[in-house]
Amino acid sequence: MQDDIAKILLSESRILARLDELGEQITRDFRGKPMTVVAILNGSCLFLGDLLRRIPLPLTVECISVASYHGGTSSSGKVELMQKSLPAVAGRNVLLVDDILDTGRTLSMVRALLAEFAGADEVRTCVLLRKRVERAVAIEADYAAFEIPNEFVVGYGLDYLGHYRNLPFIGVLKPEVIERMKGGLEPAGSR
Ligand code: IMP
Ligand code: MG
């Protein structure tokens, strides 16, 4: 799997050091409030675990599933909620966690659903990565761990065609790997 990576953008130690800071900031901001962390799966899975361990407050956790990328390296433009009901966040202060802010469609749709239909008191957004691009939807994250250039990245929860989420760092795939997998092949070392 490591052989498929062209370059590492953010090492594991750099990610975790930054999460120490982010966790402290969020802990300060949410102290004394009824807090629910709502995570958008699957991309935020590793980020969620490491961030939660750094927020020593009473809180509940809810996960929701959203499909926006339908298998490629660019956004399909359509965001779909994958379950029938919204998490119970009425009257709560929500920290909405996602892996990456790209076009902004996912975060803005989910934030609106939680604030308008699920009755959250306040919704703050938190992403691991903020891509330096012009957003299709005007939204900024309240908390962002890192800003990255407009490149397709994998690892630490982020996938390409479902793979590479388990890399402990964030990196860029070799172009030939992207092409090879488009043709239906699996990552290096799969079998
Ligand atoms: P947005 O709705 O365009 O902001 O897209 C957000 C979603 O697209 C994220 O939750 C990711 O699942 C996916 N995404 C955007 N950029 C990347 C990337 O560079 N690598 C992997 N997934 C990405
Ligand atoms: Mg995602």
Architecture overview:
Strand 2 (35-41), helix 2 (45-52) and strand 3 (59-67) form a beta-alpha-beta unit. The mean pLDDT is 94. The protein is of the alpha/beta class and 191 residues long. The termini are close together. The chain has a six-stranded mixed beta sheet. A three-stranded antiparallel beta sheet has the order 1-9-8. It has helices at residues 12-30, 45-52, 105-117, 175-182, and strands spanning 5-10, 35-41, 59-67, 80-81, 93-101, 122-131, 143-148, 153-154, 170-173. The chain binds inosinic acid and magnesium ion (MG). The site of inosinic acid has 18 residues, from strand 5, helix 3 and strand 8. Magnesium ion is lined by residues 43, 99.
Features:
9 strands; 6-stranded mixed β-sheet; binds inosinic acid; single chain; about 190 residues; binds magnesium ion; 3-stranded antiparallel β-sheet; alpha/beta
Question: In terms of topology, how is this protein built?
Answer:
Layout: E1 5-10, H1 12-30, E2 35-41, H2 45-52, E3 59-67, E4 80-81, E5 93-101, H3 105-117, E6 122-131, E7 143-148, E8 153-154, E9 170-173, H4 175-182
Parallel strand pairs: 2-3, 2-5, 5-6, 6-7
Antiparallel strand pairs: 1-9, 3-4, 8-9
The protein binds inosinic acid (IMP) and magnesium ion.
Enumerate how many helices there are, as a single number: 4
> Separation of termini?
11 Å
Summarize the main sheet. Answer: 6 strands, mixed
Q: Look at the helices and sheets and give the structural class.
A: alpha/beta
